[in-house]
Amino acid sequence: MTPVVAETVDPSYELVEPAAARAPILFNSPHSGLVYPRSFVEQARLDLPTLRRSEDSFVDELFRDVVGLGLPFMRAHFPRCYLDLNREPYELDPRMFEGRLPAFANTRSMRVSGGLGTIARIVGESQEIYGRRIPVDDAIERIEALYKPYHRTLRRMMVQMQRAFGVALLVDCHSMPSSNGRDERMRTDIVLGDRYGTSCAPFVTDALERELTRRGYVVVRNKPYAGGFITEHYGNPASGMHAVQIEINRALYMDERSYVPSPRFAQVRADLLAVAQELAGLDPQELAPLRTAAE
Fold it and tell me: pTM here?
């Protein structure tokens, strides 16, 4: 798929639900959007290919077939460099904006310091997106019009699944560059992030690692990606809510320079679908919150 420059991003996201839910698992792709607002492209000092450096290119295409397994799938249509859904709603760098930020904005997080807040300052190897400050009202509008509706739907789906099955699992789907910017190729194929065991029952992460490794992938946990805001915010195993992040090395399935799928794309997609099928077959009771002795 190719990026689109449009006046507006409407609809801003897509939720595809199966006719009948098979398991309490929601797959989510928040960073694969390809609809670039024209006003944003005109604001940016970078060209479109450079802005695309932060995309999780084709991740939605890798995972969307899970709907055929009876599992819902959600994705954003706007790009991460325009608005990052995997951040707190107001992780904002005051140096980026013309005007005063709300008093409750988080201006001192590590992600803001690194230029990767809710409204990103950089893409790629620290390339500045904007040539000048942008109006603070612009940032607030993006959050109100895009961020909040997306997360309301994400939360509604998690609650809906928990009511139906007693538990809910969010699989947050991402990709990672194959090098660290110093021409060092990443030897890991897939990183599973469960916030070091705090966002998801080990039962799930174990199953994912087992099934991926069995298909020949090199899998590690939590390093260098333990999971972002979505994993942390929606994962609460004590209440029966679980979240795990999957980061896929882009070199496995695409040409990172030309933004086109590689010959291995179909095999990677088939493998991920098979892993999703195994995950859907697990016993949901394994995700149920542990009861205390007093209960």
Answer: 0.95
Q: Which residue has the tokens 């086109």?
A: 260
Cα separation, 290 vs 247, in Å, equals: 29
200: number of Cβ within 10 Å: 28
Tell me the angle at which helices 265-280 and 202-214 cross, rounded to the nearest 10 degrees.
140
Q: Who's near 193: CB < 8 A, 6+ residues apart?
A: 199, 221, 222, 225, 226, 227, 231, 244, 245, 246, 247
Q: Mean pLDDT, consecutive 10-residue segments, the chain of 295 residues?
A: 92 97 97 98 96 96 98 98 98 96 95 97 93 96 98 98 96 91 72 97 96 98 96 96 98 96 98 97 82 37
Other beta carbons less than 10 A from residue 58's beta carbon = 24
Domains of the chain: 4-80+142-282 (3.40.630.40)
70: left (phi over 0), alpha (psi -120 to 50) or beta: left
